[in-house]
Specification:
337 residues, mainly alpha, 13 helices, 2 strands
């Protein structure tokens, strides 16, 4: 009997997030069986693909024991930058009236580069000036919002929402690949590719090993010969680039952009990471866990709306899950000490 209890506890400890996801799906399906369909799965995946990319960027930082509050505003900046350069030539309120049609890759790269630069600045301040990540990214969050708002308010745009985006750009946010009767959105494919690349970095590269070492014990990492400063620069830069890519895809998905894009996205990303098993104390986290964490909140948002649950109750449920995940993480941490 004792062995059975221990086995159950071990299973719940190792697979808690998967159990939570399964319980959510079963509960919503019992309330409305039509929820369990391929179209529902496709919609959830499509809605949460960019959130998964943001969460993966946040995971890099969290595993080192840091935090990045600038993520959402970087998403907004990259969305505005990319959207401002891909408007159709005959759009009446064109952001750059005299700009010729550019190859899509140029605005995409510029937007991702903007995110990377913000991440690099975060890494420099944290690693060279030793300002805590919370304060650093809180400051850059405000700075990026200001920069984005100034850019967005430039003549002749004057803070008007950017619209009229080219079809070869928006197809990345709304296009699909038909596989028989199943439609797979481009966004989902991009998110899967990004997740695979992150998995390789986490598990098969020196940067990944160093990332876990820094999060586990930064002093020990120093002693073992790891260049903590250089690794943090790489990690925050990669995170910023991922936020930038997510911003581009958000603009493509919505067909426009404004300087308010990305507001509070960083909180959703951090919550998904924590629920997905990324430790708040650093040194622990997996790509698959982050993806499941994103799916849990995706099921909550879509599923509870699907069965008509009051949005305020949805917020309460999400908050309870976040608190429970952190409490569970802290309990595991204390048990190891």
């Amino acid at each position: 009997m004792n062995i059975s209890i221990k086995q159950t506890k071990s299973f719940l400890t190792n697979y808690a997030i998967y159990v939570v996801l399964a319980v959510l799906i079963i509960g919503i399906t019992l309330s409305d069986p039509s929820f369990l369909s391929m179209s529902t799965l496709t919609n959830i995946l499509h809605q949460n693909s960019t959130k998964a990319i943001i969460a993966l960027g946040a995971a890099f930082v969290l595993i080192t024991g840091g935090v990045d509050l600038s993520a959402g505003r970087v998403v907004g900046l990259s969305a505005v930058i990319s959207a401002s350069m891909v408007q159709v030539s005959n759009y009446p309120q064109k952001f750059f009236p005299n700009l010729n049609e550019l190859p899509i890759i140029i605005p995409v790269l510029l937007a991702v580069l903007a995110g990377l630069i913000v991440g690099l600045v975060n890494g420099l301040i944290i690693s060279k000036l030793h300002v805590p990540p919370f304060i650093t990214t809180l400051g850059t969050m405000v700075i990026v919002l200001g920069v984005n708002s100034l850019y967005f308010d430039m003549e002749p745009n004057n803070s008007q929402p950017i619209g009229g985006l080219r079809q070869d750009f928006t197809k990345w946010g709304s296009g699909t690949i038909e596989i028989g009767s199943f439609s797979l959105p481009y966004l989902v494919i991009v998110a899967i590719v990004v997740a695979f690349i992150c998995w390789v970095i986490f598990n098969k590269t020196r940067l990944g090993k160093n990332m876990y070492a820094i999060g586990g014990n930064v002093q020990a990492a120093h002693v073992s010969g790891i260049n903590v400063s250089r690794n943090l620069l790489w990690i925050y830069s990669i995170a910023g680039a991922l936020y930038g890519l997510a911003g581009v895809l958000e603009a493509a998905k919505s067909g426009g952009a404004s300087n308010n894009y990305g507001n509070m996205y960083e909180l959703d990303a951090i919550a998904a990471c924590v629920v997905g098993g990324v430790s708040t104390t650093g040194g622990v986290g997996t790509v698959q866990g982050v993806m499941v964490g994103v799916m849990i909140f995706g099921v909550i948002n879509y599923g509870l709306t699907f069965i008509g649950v009051n949005p305020y109750w949805q917020l309460i449920i999400k908050g309870l899950i976040i608190v429970a995940a952190v409490a569970f993480d802290v309990r595991k941490y204390l048990a190891k000490k």
